[in-house]
C-alpha cells in the first residue's frame, strides 16, 4: 500500500470580499481567470456557517443552502484575476444582482473568450474577456428562465435556481443546465431573433436537485450509423446528469429542425432520441461528471464525484433497442471529502510502464480541500485511482479549483478557493 502524499503548501493566499463558488481560467487568455461569488445575507450566512462546524456530515447541507435560500437574500460578483510570476493580481470586480453558482468559458474554437454564468435567480449571462482594455470583462447579455421559455406566468419559475451548466463541446451556441427542481434543460443561444430559447421540456428529470451535467458524443451506435461525422458531433450526443437523488442519469439526444421557429431552431428527434437510463451505486448525491473520451469494449468511460466522498469510474454501454444502456462501475476511491468538481489535467494514451493509458484529474473536495488524482488502466486491464497531490490549507468548503492552461503537468500551477473563509490560494504541486 502506498504511503499518503504530503500536502502541498501555498505560494500565495488572499481573502476575497465575498464567498467564492466557482472558478475557471480563460482558454483565450491563459494567465487570466474568473471567480464567481455567492453572498448570503448575514443571518443566513451565520446559520450556514454553524452547519459547517458539524464537519463532513454537513457537506450536503452546505451545498443545499445555495438551492433553498430565498432569492431576494443573495447577490454576488465576478472577479477577474491574472497570474503573473506566480502571483495572483486583481484585475476587475463586477458586482452581480444574484449569487453565482457556476461559470465556464466556451470550449469551441473562436469563442474561447466568451464566458457564461448561471445564478440563484435562474438567469444565464454571457461575458467577454478582453485583456488590455480599461475594463477587460464586458457584460454581453442576460436572460432569465421565464424569458427564455416564454412562460405565460413568470411566477411559476421565481423559486427556481440554475445550479450548474456545461457548454456543448462542438456546438458553440448550445448549453445544458440544471435546476434546483431537478430539471436538466437545453438552451439554444442562436435563435434568429437574437433571443435564447429553452427546449420546451426537461431532457432529464431528477426527483431532487440536479447538481451537475455533462455532454459527450453519442453512445448510440444506431444514431452514428445514420449520420455523418459532423452530424454525430453536433446533432447527436449523450447527456449525463447527476442529482441529489443519488443517481447518474444519461440519455441519447438527436436534434432535428424545429417545426415552429418561434420555439427555437431545434427539437428533439423522438424517433432516435432514446429514453433516459438511471444508474445507482452512489451512496449520496452525484455532484460531478467528467467524460473521458475513452472507451472500453465500445462503452464510453466517465468519472463521477459524489457527496459520499468517492470518485468513481463507470463504463456506459451504447443504447440497444429494448435494452437500457448499462453503466458498470470499474473503480472507486475515497478522497476524504465530497467531490464537488472534476477537471481533466492531461491524458496519456501512450503505453507507459505497466499501463495502457493514464489520466490526471483535479478534484475540488469540499471540506477536504483539493486533490490531484491519477487514474490508470494497467496492462492487466485493472482500473486504479491514486491520489498524487493534496492541498489542505482551506478551512472551509473547496467548491472551485482550476489550473493555469498551456503548461506541462510537471509545471502545474493551481488556483483553488474555499467558501466561508473566502480564501483564494495559488499552489504548485510536484508531479512527474
Features:
432 residues; mainly beta; Methylamine Dehydrogenase, Chain H; five-stranded antiparallel sheet; 31 strands; Diphthamide biosynthesis protein 7; Diphthine_MTase; repeat; diphthine methylesterase activity
Topology at a glance:
Layout: E1 10-15, E2 20-25, E3 32-37, E4 39-40, H1 42-52, H2 59-68, E5 74-84, E6 87-96, E7 100-105, E8 114-119, E9 123-129, E10 137-144, H3 145-149, E11 162-167, E12 174-179, E13 183-188, E14 197-198, E15 204-205, E16 210-217, H4 221-225, H5 229-235, E17 236-243, E18 248-257, E19 266-268, E20 277-279, E21 286-296, E22 299-306, E23 310-316, E24 327-334, E25 341-348, E26 355-364, E27 370-378, E28 383-391, E29 401-403, E30 414-418, E31 423-427
Antiparallel strand pairs: 1-31, 2-3, 3-5, 4-5, 5-6, 7-8, 8-9, 9-10, 11-12, 12-13, 13-14, 13-15, 16-17, 17-18, 18-19, 18-20, 21-22, 22-23, 23-24, 25-26, 26-27, 27-28, 29-30, 30-31
Region (Disordered): 46-71
Keywords: Repeat, WD repeat
Protein name: Diphthamide biosynthesis protein 7
Amino acid at each position: 500500500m502506498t504511503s499518503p502524499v504530503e500536502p502541498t503548501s501555498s505560494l500565495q493566499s488572499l481573502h476575497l470580499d465575498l464567498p467564492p463558488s466557482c472558478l475557471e481560467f480563460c482558454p483565450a487568455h491563459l494567465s487570466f481567470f474568473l471567480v464567481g461569488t455567492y453572498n448570503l445575507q448575514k443571518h443566513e450566512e451565520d446559520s450556514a456557517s454553524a452547519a459547517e462546524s458539524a464537519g463532513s456530515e454537513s457537506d450536503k447541507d452546505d451545498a443545499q443552502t445555495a438551492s433553498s435560500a430565498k432569492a431576494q437574500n443573495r447577490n454576488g460578483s465576478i472577479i477577474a484575476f491574472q497570474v503573473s510570476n506566480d502571483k495572483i493580481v486583481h484585475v476587475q470586480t463586477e458586482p452581480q444582482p444574484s449569487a453565482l453558482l457556476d461559470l465556464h468559458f466556451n470550449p469551441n474554437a473562436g469563442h474561447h473568450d466568451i464566458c457564461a454564468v448561471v445564478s440563484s435567480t435562474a438567469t444565464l449571462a454571457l461575458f467577454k474577456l478582453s485583456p488590455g482594455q480599461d475594463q477587460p470583462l464586458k457584460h454581453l447579455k442576460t436572460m432569465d428562465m421565464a424569458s427564455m421559455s416564454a412562460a405565460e406566468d413568470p411566477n411559476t419559475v421565481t423559486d427556481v435556481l440554475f445550479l450548474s451548466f456545461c457548454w456543448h463541446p462542438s456546438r458553440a451556441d448550445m448549453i445544458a443546465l440544471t435546476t434546483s427542481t431537478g430539471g436538466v434543460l437545453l438552451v439554444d443561444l442562436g435563435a434568429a431573433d437574437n433571443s435564447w430559447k429553452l427546449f420546451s421540456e426537461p431532457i432529464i428529470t431528477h426527483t431532487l436537485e440536479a447538481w451537475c451535467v455533462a455532454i459527450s458524443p453519442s453512445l448510440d451506435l444506431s444514431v452514428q450509423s445514420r449520420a455523418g461525422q459532423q452530424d454525430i458531433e453536433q446533432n447527436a450526443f449523450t447527456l449525463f446528469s447527476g442529482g441529489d437523488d443519488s443517481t447518474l442519469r444519461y440519455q441519447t439526444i438527436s436534434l432535428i429542425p424545429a417545426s415552429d421557429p418561434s420555439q427555437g431552431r431545434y427539437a428533439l428527434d423522438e424517433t432516435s432520441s432514446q429514453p433516459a437510463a438511471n444508474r445507482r451505486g452512489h451512496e449520496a448525491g452525484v455532484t460531478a461528471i467528467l467524460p473521458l473520451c475513452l472507451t472500453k469494449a465500445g462503452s464510453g468511460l466517465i468519472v463521477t464525484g459524489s457527496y459520499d466522498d468517492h470518485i468513481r469510474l463507470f463504463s456506459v454501454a451504447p443504447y440497444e433497442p429494448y435494452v437500457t444502456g448499462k453503466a458498470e462501475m470499474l473503480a472507486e476511491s475515497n478522497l476524504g471529502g465530497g467531490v464537488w468538481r472534476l477537471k481533466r489535467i492531461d491524458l496519456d494514451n501512450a503505453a507507459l510502464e505497466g499501463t495502457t493509458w493514464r489520466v490526471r484529474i483535479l478534484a475540488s473536495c469540499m471540506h477536504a480541500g483539493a486533490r490531484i488524482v491519477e487514474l490508470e488502466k494497467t496492462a492487466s486491464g485493472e482500473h486504479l485511482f491514486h491520489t498524487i497531490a493534496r492541498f489542505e490549507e482551506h478551512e472551509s468548503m473547496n467548491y472551485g479549483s482550476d489550473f493555469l492552461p498551456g503548461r506541462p503537468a510537471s509545471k502545474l500551477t493551481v488556483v483553488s478557493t474555499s467558501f466561508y473563509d473566502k480564501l483564494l490560494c495559488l499552489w504548485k504541486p510536484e508531479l512527474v
